[in-house]
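Hi support team,

I've been running sequence recovery on a batch of backbones for a student project. Most finish fine, but this one hangs at about 90% for roughly twenty minutes before it completes. I'm not sure whether the input is malformed or the queue is just slow. I've pasted the structure tokens below so you can try to reproduce it. Let me know if you need the job ID as well.

Thanks,
M.K.
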């Protein structure tokens, strides 16, 4: 029997394979390498104890906002490092 940690890693790996990637011209790895058209694999989480499903449709826009903020912060750090080393 596999530990449950491995099951979580399978879900994470599958999700990462379906996420859009700037380095792949905005395509998800699964689209880039296979040519398959796919949607985000996760649309809800299910609590295994209460059997309640939590919709995560808001997650895409929230992740995009966080990634935009991270990109801006990284650019700022690069500018500061460049100015300091010049």
């Amino acid at each position: 029997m596999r530990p449950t940690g491995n099951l979580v890693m399978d879900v994470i790996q599958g999700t990462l394979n379906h996420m859009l990637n700037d380095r792949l011209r905005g395509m998800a790895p699964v689209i880039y390498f296979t040519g398959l058209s796919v949607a985000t694999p996760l649309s809800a989480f299910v609590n295994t104890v209460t059997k309640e499903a939590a919709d995560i449709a808001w997650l895409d826009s929230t992740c995009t906002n966080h990634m935009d903020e991270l990109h801006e912060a990284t650019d700022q750090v690069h500018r500061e490092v460049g100015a300091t080393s010049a």
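--
Follow-up from support: It reproduced on our side and the slowdown came from queue contention, not your input. The first strand starts at residue 44 and ends at 46. No action needed from you.
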